[in-house]
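cron nightly-structures :: item 1 of 1
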Amino acid sequence: MSEEKNSNQKDIWKTARNSDDIDETFGRRKKPGIFAKMDIFGWISLFLIAVIIGGLGSIGYLSWTFNKAANSKNAEAEGLVPVQGDFAPGRAKKADVLFRLAGRKRVGENLMPDLVVAWMKSSGYGNVGVSKDANVTTISGSKGGKSYRVLLSLGSAKGGFDAMQQGRVEGVYSLRSILPTEADKLSAYGDMTSPDNEKVIGHDVSFVFVNPSNNISTFNGDTLGRILSGEITDWSEISDKKSGEINIRVEEEGGDKNASLLAKLLGDRELRDAAKTYKSANEVIKAVDADKDAIGFAHKDGNTSGVKMVSVNERNARAFEPNSFNISTEAYPFVERILLYIGTTTSNQALEDFAKFTLTSAGQEIVEKDGYGAQKLLEEGFQPPPEAPRDYTEFARNAKRLNFDFRFKMGATNLDNKAIADVTRLQEYMTRQGITQQRIALFGFADNVGSHETNVGVAQARAEKVLSTLGQAGINPSMVRAYGDVLPVGSNAYEEGRIKNRRVEVWVCPPPSCPLVSIVENRPQATQESAQIGVIPTGVHLGKAVKSEGEVAPKG
């Protein structure tokens, strides 16, 4: 009986082990699974849920990918510095990297690499080479058995200043002055508006041109802005000898487009929808050369023989053509300074040496070779305009004008940073050419804010400031003459034009000295000194420099 019972139990457990309803571990009957209970509708629902989840996941991934690509494209359009590799945030500069620069792509593509190469070779680096990858250029060389690099990020000035604030670059190259807000954020690097931090290394120029068959030779800045915005669309609206739709061809401005010369011409207006933009100046030139109804606005690059360059005048100022003299004196309206900003509170001797090199004659030869305006002093015969004062015209018959003007910081008699460097350049030029200080004359000018008499005094104060600064360098010009608000080179209708009019011209007279008698005006009183040479006109200063403290001057 016992054996039969045991046999029956074994059969039961054997059957149970072979059954899907018994849990082998605990010997308990399993509950039916959820999938075992599902009918056809359940399976369809499960499938639809899986499809929805997968779809949402795909959409999320595509959205992330799209946003990443869009952000990357926007960053490139704005000229931002990449946030990886040697420019990654939160990482110290590698030991083999001498310095990192970022800024306007136009300047960084050719000029900056060429300047860095020349500086490295002059500093004893060997095996100097250049490699380009997307928007980053690397200049490498070796010295003392070690390899070194200089990195250039090609984008915009804004991107450069942002990256410098984040500690990802040590300097910025730009075609615009640093904004006050940017300078404040970079105050840890020093006063970015001081001569030590801001270097003017040359001039870039944009120009207006038309097809050679076009009879127009001069444009007013206001008219040009109306053409670009589409307010004027046909040549017949501005010429009685030509008709046809005006076809606008312009060069892309990149990440600094809001601060570009094109943006300044347009003001609050938008570029005409029908306008075509091109990647390079050469492409714009070719397009205008092939279209008799086209007008172009681009940087002055390449071969311009196929187009006709046009003179431009700002409101109430005379017209200037884009020749070398008008570019170097900054009288041509579309001249931009090429600026290099460096930090001085951080120790980077290599960068400071490079910045100094850009201002040497060797550095300026590179600037000129690359098609930019170099800062090379020259004496040039100058033909005054018909409206010039009689004594100014008389003086210009024998004297020659140097191809630069001393300019000032806004609203003050203090020289701007280029003018401070120009003092040294003038000193070196006089020594090199054997020019004595008795042969140097300074002519001061002002804007038209205030009365003419007041503006003569303001122009005199600025000219005296130049005289004082030159005196500290051992140069005492024989004459200073103030003309006030005559002969404007910029429009007095807005501040940028007025700043250009606040200037001091430098003239070189034939030996032995400047002929004061040629600028005599009729005045009832004269000093004993003036009686020997003729009556001294209003605003003429004789003798050595008078010390001044660069006081704030009234506008004018």
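cron nightly-structures :: done
The first helix runs from residue 2 to 17.
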